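Today's session is about reading a structure prediction critically. Students often jump straight to the picture, but the first step is always the sequence itself: look for stretches that repeat, for charged clusters, for runs of hydrophobic residues. Only then move on to the predicted structure, which in these notes is written as discrete structure tokens rather than atom positions. Here is the chain we will use throughout the hour.
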Amino acid sequence: MKYKVLTIVLTAVFAVPSFLFAQKKNVEEPSLLRQTPFAVKTNILYDEASFVNFSVEAGLGSNWGVQFDAICPWWKDDDNLRVTQMINLGLEGRYYWRGWTDNSRAISGPYVGAMVSGGIYDLCRRSSSKNKYRGFQGDYFFMGGITCGYVWAPSPWWRLEASAGLGAMQTAYTHYDMVENGQYLMLHNEGTYTYFGPTKINFSIAWLFSQCWQQKKKGVWR
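Below is the predicted structure for this chain, in token form.
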């Protein structure tokens, strides 16, 4: 009998505070913390340079975010002289200084972060000589550094972001000239290059498709 009484008492001791904490959490915790906001982005500056790109960011809790970046232009002109080919994949973790108090403000405000990325490239443009095109082909490149920026929320669905990054890059490259309508490649040199300085500049427009889905599902913003 005494063991049954002890069991009841211990259950009450642990269950009651847990129940009160859960009730408090349900009342005070914003609904956002039980949902994961997702944003799809494109860097307008890269778009203007014909660098196809997109990013996907997921909000974690009310202050953290993780973003996947892809830059993947793959263009050649008709004579195979002007080349813009790149595959750059990256991952960035972010901490937003002010917590998001409701769904309409998710993924917004000032932030700091850290990023890593890497990939391959082949870039060729006309040189000072009219008959030559000079190019650099990267066997690989890696970048890493810190980022900071600000995300504006002009509406519950849309975001505008300005950010920059500072860090280091290393690449193994081949320097070449292309002549005779792209039919002849002249190798100059190969090497490895390491760079320290600005690594990212970004002005993006983002659409929170998770917010759109939630509004359609519930009919109202919360």
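Discussion point for the tutorial: The CA atoms of residues 119 and 129 lie 30 Å apart.
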